[in-house]
């Protein structure tokens, strides 16, 4: 057992520094003071960090690159610095290090050497998006970036399909639409919030169902950084295949011929330029179909079509 005291320890330490996620004014006085005191600054990308340091006229004695590909090779150098009693500040390109960013190796090494690890709180994209999503009053979990492989992605969604709280996901612009397409096959009607370019001039929050966000990103060219917040699960919005298959009683009430005609009319209307949601509403009213059933079946058809080569 070891107890570390952050504010009484002299000498070697590791500061975990949260830096702005876009707007360079989102700094704390404590962060600036810490960076000025640091003997060494470990930066995920020194070019990005220099922008912040230059803005506030900070000139650390040593600024070195530290990222996921060289963390192991830096261990002996870090060990030597701490043995000399140096104070090291760890920063990532944006936000809080270790939250889907490098730094775990440095923290583990510091702890093994009884070097105090001291967090310097500040901006964080996940929590910033969560509090603006409308889902922050519940429990939540942070998933970070979802797996790239389709099977592993589905396995991850399977593991969380009964989770009662909100889910926080990071995603890159070129994978965003595919990610939403996969999530829509699980939770098509689940409320969600897509946060774009947090703290920057193009900051946006897009609210809607997962399906609506999928359709939105299908019609636009996503750019920038995104955080996706899925609402807390419920019987109506959670569960594998929820919305893609009705309960047995509901299924019995569907007239397959009528539904087939409904799907055909939706396809024709969409091909003519009508928005998908409007086409579903109009067709369901004309044929006296359950709009929810027609919407979900036509969505599945649309998703499968988008998945085809």
Task: Describe the overall structure.
This protein has 12 helices and 10 strands. By secondary structure, the protein is an alpha/beta fold. The chain has 3 domains: 13-123, Tetrapyrrole methylase, N-terminal domain (Cobalt-precorrin-4 Transmethylase, domain 1, 3-Layer(aba) Sandwich), CATH 3.40.1010.10; 126-230, Methyltransferase, Cobalt-precorrin-4 Transmethylase, Domain 2 (2-Layer Sandwich), CATH 3.30.950; 248-304, no CATH class. The strands form 2 sheets. A 5-stranded parallel sheet has the order 3-2-4-1-5. Strands 6-7-10-8-9 form a 5-stranded mixed sheet. β2, α2 and β3 form a beta-alpha-beta unit. α7 packs antiparallel against α8 (210-219) and α10 (256-271) runs antiparallel to α11 (276-287). Residues 234-254 have low confidence and may be disordered.
């Amino acid at each position: 057992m070891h107890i570390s005291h952050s504010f009484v320890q002299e000498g070697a330490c590791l500061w975990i520094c949260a830096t702005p996620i876009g707007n360079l004014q989102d700094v704390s006085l404590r962060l600036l003071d810490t960076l000025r005191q640091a003997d060494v600054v470990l930066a995920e990308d020194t070019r990005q960090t220099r922008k912040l340091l230059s803005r506030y006229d900070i000139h650390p004695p040593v600024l070195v690159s530290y990222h996921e590909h060289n963390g192991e090779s830096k261990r002996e150098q870090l060990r030597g610095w701490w043995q000399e009693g140096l104070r090291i500040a760890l920063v990532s390109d944006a936000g809080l290090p270790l939250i889907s960013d490098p730094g775990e190796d440095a923290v583990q090494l510091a702890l093994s050497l009884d070097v105090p690890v001291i967090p310097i709180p500040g901006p964080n994209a996940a929590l910033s998006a969560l509090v603006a999503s409308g889902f922050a009053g519940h429990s939540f979990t942070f998933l970070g970036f979802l797996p790239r492989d389709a099977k592993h992605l589905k396995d991850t969604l399977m593991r969380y399909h009964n989770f009662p709280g909100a889910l926080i996901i990071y995603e890159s612009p070129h994978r965003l639409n595919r990610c939403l397409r996969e999530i829509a096959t699980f939770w098509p009607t689940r409320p969600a919030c897509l946060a774009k370019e947090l703290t920057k001039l193009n900051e946006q929050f897009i609210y809607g169902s997962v399906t609506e966000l999928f359709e939105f990103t299908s019609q636009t060219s996503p750019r920038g950084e995104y955080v996706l917040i899925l609402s807390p699960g419920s019987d109506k919005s959670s569960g594998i295949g929820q919305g893609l298959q009705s309960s047995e009683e509901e299924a019995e009430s569907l007239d397959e011929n009528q539904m087939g005609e409904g799907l055909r009319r939706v396809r024709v209307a969409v091909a003519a330029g009508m928005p998908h949601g409007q086409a579903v509403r109009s067709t369901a009213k004309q044929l006296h179909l359950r709009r929810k059933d027609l919407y979900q079946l036509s969505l599945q058809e649309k998703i499968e079509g988008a998945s085809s080569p």
